[in-house]
Automatic annotation (TrEMBL):
Keywords (A to Z) from UniProt: Coiled coil, Kinase, Phosphoprotein, Transferase
Residues modified to 4-aspartylphosphate: 612, 746
Molecular function GO terms recorded: phosphorelay sensor kinase activity
Ranges of residues in domain PAS: 6-76, 132-201
Domain (PAC) ranges: 79-131, 204-257
Pfam families according to UniProt: HATPase_c, HisKA, PAS_3, Response_reg
Protein name, UniProt field: histidine kinase
Record SMART domains: HATPase_c, HisKA, PAC, PAS, REC
Length: 820
């Protein structure tokens, strides 16, 4: 009863189990199969008894079952075997069969009890896993990269073949020692990154140098991703790759280098460009400066030409006007009351003409045509001698300072004009300092190395100069004022307060004196004007004690002697002769040079030749004087000129027995000069006849140029004859072809081209050299006649030096030009 009950309980439990439960007897036949058999196999459990169950097993699995079972049966041991049962739906499913022997209470073998568990699902999963694994391996082996995997703790458990190929490591060696393949310098960094990814689960990505089997390190990119368990979310493994990026890194580095290189080149180029630009700007500025200076010089030159021309004609007229007024006044000296009004009128007229004369003098001085008497001057003495006068001019509100260097050179300059220039500048400075200030006069030596040197007048030739600066602390000049300060008539002063001639006069004076002038001025910062005077190599003569504006004293005593007046302007001549006669001189007169020479020969008692510089008919005043002195060495000469262009030089061989008087002159000046000249001792030895001066035929249609050239040429010691066109020139030549030693031809003549005239001249006198004067660019002409030894070219405007140089080149003897 108890047995039956426990059997029933066993059956109940067994039937409720989700697995096949069976019991066999000692012969191996099944004696119990639970309900599960029926549930899955579809046949009643009873049909399983004995060998019945075998029909539900896949036949090919039976042998392996028997092998396990029989072995266990014989040994009375447990067994375990996996076989497939075919379910009722026809599906064969895996079961793990586990059996264990059973015994009774006296250890008699009773058979087996067993349990068959459906393991199909597990089997399938394992199979899937295996297949996946195989697939992964296949893929990873087929990849060109190194592929690896690791356990969640970071231990590597797989490398594909590439690793071995690359590093030479394999198997356990690779798994354990892979970190040694990483460059020592990259190891710590790599370890850190790997650790960080393991901790956070974030993608692992790092570049490091990986050692190849041959010891070469190449850059590699290592990358790894975690694979998660879908259910738990735990990291199952890491899968990683290493990609050789050596080429990319090299390219990247090359790119970086070339980028750096590019940047360097760009910045170099930029700098070069910048400096080129800077240079260009500087050059442009310099050029503009030079152009400005040139424009200024040309403007001054043009104004100079104009004013010079006007002043010249004016002076001749004024000579007549004022001379006659003077005579009129002298006659009106008598105390006749009814003449008083006429006298007042005449006096007014005289004052007017004096002022007109002053104006023309200023014009001439700007035009660089004033009669200057440059002499070696002790500049220090001159400046110090001016201090009193300057201080008086400046007034008490202005302090006068002098800064005079030791051993300042003497300068070749007209002392009187220099004094008046200083006075002019001082007056300007005073006007610019209405509330007082400081005026500084400084004196020093200055050597100019090259033309266009900074800080000096660009016109100045290289050489040695005395620098005389006058600077004030006054208002200074605006840019506009600075640009025009040297222009004649330019003034910012009220009408009547300034004529605008001060600076232009100083300018002209310095230019005529072969010196220079600079002007520095800024609004509110005062003004500095520096005068550059050419150094003199000679010892300065004592300055006349009269100082500024001193004029020879009016000759009190009556004139004594015979004077020959040579003047082509009839009015002027008449005035001069009358004046001289009134002074008590015996007077002879001539209208040109030849007439004068004739008179001189007939009248050996002539003491003094009073001649105009510009005379018609080829023999001008200068040439006349030379010829006259050649014949009469004791003769004194007084030149007069309305236009005296550098007639005299300090070392002139006419010496103390000649002088010059600018037109218009008054009787006092004339008397003074005459008295001084006539008082000079006559020379002891008679001068020998000088060699015949070379004679030049000057063919020039422009009157003013012809006059200027004549003066220049005569200064060079040449006799000059002029013609105003080609026809006239040929006439003159035909008359006496042997007379001329050189011919100078203006290229632009009114009737013919200068070149054609030159050919005719050559036909007549092949041995005579020819100079072309050209107003336009002379370079073409120069090129044409470059190889012709007998032809020279000078371009207008030319000066004495240029002419002298050309003449000497052509073998014509000239007197040297003064060094100022
Ligand atoms: N030292 C100076 N400071 C400031 N401005 C000056 C100075 N010197 C000359 N100027 C300016 O230059 C102009 C021209 O000077 P310039 O001496 O030629 O003529 P002026 O003084 O006006 O008249 P003038 O000298 O004929 O009586 C002046 O009107 C003035 O504007
Ligand atoms: Mg002035």
């Amino acid at each position: 009863m108890v047995v039956a009950e426990s059997e029933a309980r066993f059956k109940r439990i067994a039937d409720s189990a989700p697995a096949m439960i069976w019991v066999s007897d000692a012969e191996g036949r099944v004696i119990f199969a639970n309900r599960y058999y029926e549930t899955v196999l579809g046949a009643p459990a009873a049909t399983m008894l004995g060998d019945g169950w075998q029909r539900a097993v896949l036949p090919e699995d039976l042998p392996s079952f028997y092998t396990s079972f029989m072995t266990a049966f014989a040994a009375r041991r447990s067994f375990r075997v996996e076989i497939r049962f075919v379910h009722k739906d026809g599906e064969a499913r895996w079961y793990r069969c586990a059996g264990a022997p059973r015994y009774d209470s006296v250890d008699r073998f009773l058979g087996f009890t067993g349990c068959n568990l459906d393991i199909s699902e597990g089997k399938r999963a394992a199979e899937e896993l295996r297949r996946n694994e195989l697939r992964f391996r296949a893929i990873s082996e087929s990849m060109p990269q190194i592929v690896w995997s690791s356990l969640p703790d970071g231990r590597i458990d797989y490398f594909n073949q590439r690793w071995t190929e690359y590093t030479g490591q394999s198997g356990a060696d690779a798994v354990e020692n892979w970190p040694q393949m990483i460059h020592a310098g990259d190891r710590a960094r790599t370890q850190q990154a790997w650790q960080a990814s393991l901790e956070t689960g974030e993608t692992y990505e790092i570049e490091y140098r990986l050692r190849r089997h041959d010891g070469v390190y190449r850059w590699s990119l290592a990358r790894a991703l975690p694979v998660y368990d879908e259910i738990s979310g735990q990291i199952l493994r890491w899968f990683g790759t290493c990609t050789d990026i050596e080429d990319q890194v090299a390219a990247r580095q090359a790119l970086a280098r070339s980028q750096e290189e590019l940047e360097r080149v760009v910045s170099e180029r930029t700098a070069a460009l910048q400096s080129a630009n800077e240079q260009l700007r500087k050059e442009i500025a310099e050029r503009e400066h030079a152009e400005e200076a040139l424009r200024q010089a040309q403007k001054m030159e043009a104004i100079g030409q104009l004013t010079g021309g006007v002043a010249h004609d004016f002076n001749n007229l004024l000579t007549v006007i004022s001379g006659n007024l003077e005579r009129l006044l002298r006659r009106l000296d008598d105390d006749e009351p009814d003449l008083a009004r006429i006298r007042i009128a005449a006096e007014h007229a005289m004052r007017g003409s004096k002022r007109a004369a002053e104006l023309t003098e200023r014009l001439l001085s700007f035009a660089r045509r004033q009669p200057l008497r440059p002499r070696p001057v002790d500049t220090t003495q001159l400046v110090m001698g001016m201090v009193d006068l300057l201080q008086r001019t400046l007034g008490e509100q202005i302090q006068l300072k002098t800064e005079v260097d030791d051993d300042v050179w003497p300068a070749t300059v007209d002392a009187n004009h220099l004094e008046s220039a200083m006075l002019n500048l001082a007056v300007n400075a005073r006007d610019a300092m209405p509330d007082g200030g400081v005026l500084t006069v400084s004196l020093s030596n200055q050597t100019v190395e090259a033309t266009g040197s900074a800080d000096v007048d660009p016109d100045m030739a290289p050489g040695e100069y005395v620098r005389l600066c006058i600077s004030d602390t006054g208002t200074g000049m605006s840019q506009e004022t600075r640009a025009h300060a040297f222009d004649p008539f330019f003034t910012t002063k009220e009408i009547g307060a300034g004529t605008g001639f001060g600076l232009s006069q100083v300018y002209g004076f310095l230019k005529q004196s072969r010196g220079g002038i600079t002007l520095k001025s800024q609004m509110g910062e005062g003004t500095e004007i520096c005068l550059f005077l050419p150094r003199s190599r000679e010892d300065p003569k004592e300055l006349s004690t009269g100082g500024l504006g001193a004029t020879p004293a009016l000759a009190e005593k009556a004139g004594d002697g015979t004077i020959l007046v040579v003047e082509d302007d009839e009015d002027v001549r008449r005035h001069s002769t009358t004046l001289l006669a009134e002074m008590g001189y015996r007077v002879l007169e001539a209208g040109d040079g030849e007439g004068a020479l004739a008179l001189l020969r007939d009248n050996t008692d002539v003491d003094l030749l009073f001649t105009d510089v510009g005379l018609p008919g080829g023999l001008n005043g200068r040439a006349l004087a030379e010829r006259a002195i050649g014949e009469r060495p004791d003769l004194r000469v007084l030149f007069t000129s309305a236009y005296a262009h550098e007639v005299f030089k300090s070392e002139d061989n006419l010496g103390r027995r000649a002088d010059i008087l600018a037109k218009p002159f008054d009787s006092a000046l004339l008397a003074g000069r005459l008295a001084t000249l006539l008082a000079e001792e006559p020379p002891v030895a008679k001068r020998s006849e000088p060699a015949r001066a070379p004679v030049i035929l000057l063919v020039e249609d422009e009157m003013l140029i012809s006059m200027l050239a004549t003066e220049l040429l005569e200064e060079l010691g040449l006799g000059v004859e002029t013609a105003t066109n080609a026809a006239q020139a040929m006439d003159v030549l035909a008359q006496d072809p042997g007379r001329f030693d050189v011919v100078m031809i203006d290229i632009g003549l009114p009737d013919r081209h200068g070149g054609e005239l030159a050919e005719d001249v050559r036909a007549l006198r092949p041995e005579v050299p020819i100079i072309f004067a050209s107003g336009r660019s002379s370079s073409e002409l120069e090129e044409t006649y470059r190889h012709d030894q007998m032809i020279g070219v000078v371009s207008k405007p030319y000066d004495g030096r240029a002419l002298a140089a050309k003449l000497s080149e052509l073998g014509v003897a000239v007197r040297s030009v003064a060094p100022f």
